[in-house]
Amino acid sequence: MKLKKIIAVVFGAVAINAALFSMGYSADKSGGVFPNDFGPTSIDVSQYPPKMKMYYHLFLNKCSACHTIARPINSQFLELTAAEQAAEKKTDPEIFKNPKVWQIGQKIWSRYVHKMMSKPGANIRPSEGKRIFEFLVYDSKVRKTGKNTEAWEANREKLLKSFKQNYPKDYARIFGASSSAKKTASKGASSTPASASAQHS
User: Fold this and answer.
1) For a tag site, which of 46, 76, 113, 164 has the least CB within 10 Å?
2) pTM score of the predicted model
3) What confidence score (pLDDT) does residue 65 get?
4) How many independent structural domains does the chain possess?
């Protein structure tokens, strides 16, 4: 009996996910849809410093006003200083190979937060934007590097694969040619993303 219930729950979750894709799930007020929008909608911050826990709740409240909170949570953005990038290239060079999984830059989250703050109706004060930015930088390092590198890569790749299968046109719109993305990454992770769409992916 228990086995039947477990199977029912699993198939139910799969059905819900498939339904969202098939309905052309609208991720934001503009009707755009991105692979991130179909990923997890929360972060386990139980082991984060108290300050980051507070910033997390601010992030949830403010950033869900214009788009799904899943979008930044499942973003490939990873902000590292030049020194941090140099260190990571020695210890974990894998994260520099695929910008669809790890898009690394010195001010990548800073640019994104400022862009979101400038949108009509964002209602994010400079002090709040700073805290949200600090949380995103910290959280990205925790969830996308070190001991969590492989788990992040697996989850991100799975998300991209599902999105490409269900939204091939949107996938092409967002990422374009693979070679272009790799070329952008190789020029230096501190460069600005090629398009506005890529910033949401």
Assistant:
1) 46
2) 0.75
3) 84
4) 1
Residue 98 lies in a domain: yes
The residue among 81 and 9 whose pLDDT is bigger is 81
Q: For residue 99, what are its two tokens? A: 């910008």
Quick check: 51 and 130 in contact, CB under 8 A?
A: no
The residue range of the domain holding 156 is 34-200
132 lies in some domain: yes
The pLDDT tens digits for 121-173 are 888 999 999 999 999 999 999 999 999 999 999 999 999 999 999 999 999 99
